[in-house]
Write a structure and sequence with these properties.
six-stranded parallel sheet, 2 domains, Heptosyltransferase, Rossmann fold, LPS_LOS_Heptosyltrfase, elongated
């Protein structure tokens, strides 16, 4: 095993998937070896609080440019590709090909004809796993092949995303500008990117739920990215619209809300990673595969049927009441102490 070994990890291309790959990232960091994260440009901001010291090479989806970026980084570090080990978490041909063309020997799942591109092709587990477990399994297998410490057998119960202090300040500034108190509002995410097997991934009850909560004096806010503002306004026109935030600041914002209500989407996984309380709504996706990895998440619906507003509203109110009760108990205990 080379004494100057360097590790390279290709993270998935979607926000939620990057969040679900955090346990894999942590076990790679725990080796103590130099680690380079290769991911979409936005992932740098999302991971700023958990991987500030790691090299980052943006992957833009154009294989020639991505290969050139990796080779440039190798030159800058004075590293030889033969002394590197790559891990490709996505199943795509392109993610494995970029590492191969950059000369980095790589481990990854044996899928879609990728075996010829991988030095260490790994069979997927025979039993279907949650995405967090699947990527963690792959990571541990690769580390074992490389003779490196592979960490605990199972990922922990929390994803452990910690925004930076600046990201927390940005979230607080957005709330102050909107006149919202920390813990005094429900954050909804009434959008979702793309379709799942031709089906809309957005719960159709956001408008009705928002109006019902507002009628009870509960502030409801949303903070979509600029590209989703119009859709958010259509789906929940009476919700308060906050200015768009970077992913790290948005993660901090989820922890400032009393509750996050969202589809099974990137927002659900960001909220789970940051440790926010949430209600995640399913109608087209499988919660056992892509549900939020969090003990603080309530999941409603199924892959075949969205939950009704009449089911979601009482669940939201019960969680809000338990939050208020917990806050009062904490305040009472503090006063007694």
């Amino acid at each position: 095993m080379p004494s100057n070994l360097r590790l390279y990890v290709r993270l998935p291309n979607w926000v939620g998937d990057v969040c679900m790959s955090l346990p894999s990232l942590y076990v790679l960091q725990a080796t103590g070896l130099p680690l380079t994260i290769c991911a979409r440009p936005w992932a740098r901001d999302l991971l700023a609080g958990v991987a500030p010291a790691q090299d980052f090479v943006p992957m833009r989806g154009a294989w020639r440019a991505d290969r050139a970026a990796l080779r440039q980084q190798l030159r800058e570090r004075g590293a030889s590709a033969r002394d590197c080990r790559g891990l490709s978490l996505p199943d795509s041909l392109s993610s494995a090909a970029v590492f191969r063309l950059a000369g980095i020997p790589t481990a990854g799942y044996r899928d879609d004809g990728r075996s010829l591109l991988l030095r260490w092709p790994i069979d997927k587990p025979g039993t279907p796993l949650h995405a967090v477990e699947s990527w963690y399994y792959l990571t541990r297998k690769a580390l074992t092949y490389w003779g490196l410490p592979a960490g605990a057998e199972q990922p922990g119960p929390a994803l452990g995303l910690t925004p930076t202090a600046d990201q927390g300040m940005a979230a607080d500034a957005a709330l102050a500008e909107a006149g919202l108190a920390r813990g005094g509002f429900v954050l909804i995410a009434p959008t979702a990117t793309g379709l799942h097997r031709g089906r809309n991934k957005v719960w159709p009850g956001f408008d009705a739920l928002t109006r019902r909560l507002q009628a009870q004096g509960i502030d409801v806010a949303m903070c979509p990215p600029p590209s989703e503002v119009d859709e958010a306004r259509r789906n929940a026109p009476s919700a308060r619209l906050l200015p768009a935030l970077g992913l790290g600041a948005f993660a901090a914002l989820t922890t400032r809300a009393a509750l996050v209500v969202c589809n099974d989407s990137g927002v659900s996984h960001v909220a789970a990673a940051a440790g926010a309380r949430q209600v995640t709504l399913f109608g087209v996706t499988e919660r056992d595969r892509t549900g939020p990895w969090s003990r603080d998440a309530v999941c409603l619906g199924s892959s075949q049927h969205w939950p009704a507003v009449e089911e979601v509203e009482p669940a939201v109110l019960a969680l809000l009441q338990s939050t208020e009760a917990g806050a009062k108990d904490g305040a009472t205990a503090g006063a007694a102490g």
